[in-house]
Design a protein that fits this description.
- With about 150 residues, this protein is mainly alpha-helical.
- It has helices at about 5-30, 35-60, 70-75, 85-115, 120-140, 145.
- Helix 1 runs antiparallel to helix 4 and helix 4 (about 85-115) runs antiparallel to helix 5.
Amino acid sequence: MMDLVAAVRLALAETWVFYFKAHSFHWNVRGPLFRQFHQLFGDLYEDLHGAVDTLAERLRALDALAPASLDEIATGSAIAFTPPPAAADMVAQLLAANDVVITALDDANQAAIAGGNDGLANLLQERLDMHAKWGWMLRATLDPDQASGAVA
């Protein structure tokens, strides 16, 4: 099992890269459903922004320093930065990124439970619930053919 600080640091990295991807897509989306995607991506990045701050503060509560540079905050993230694709591909990329964040949050949650840090575990479980909702919303936004299969 991953060390608690390392697990929270990775959850922060994945959440931050997801936040930036959603924010970038919010800025760059175009097409006939611009308004709907712009709003969805805006709602998503606003939620993630708050989560980034909370996770960084939890690192401080664990007596670890929060990242001090963009390179440092993204270290270890499995989510790739990409040029803005077409709107439907944006949704698919955000869904895949959401799944990566869920895995990182779950790993941090397991480490918090193992370490007896109930408050942190509760916070991480709330984030897991929020990401389950984001997953549902992103899947529901995709075409029915795409929503039934795995998204790479």
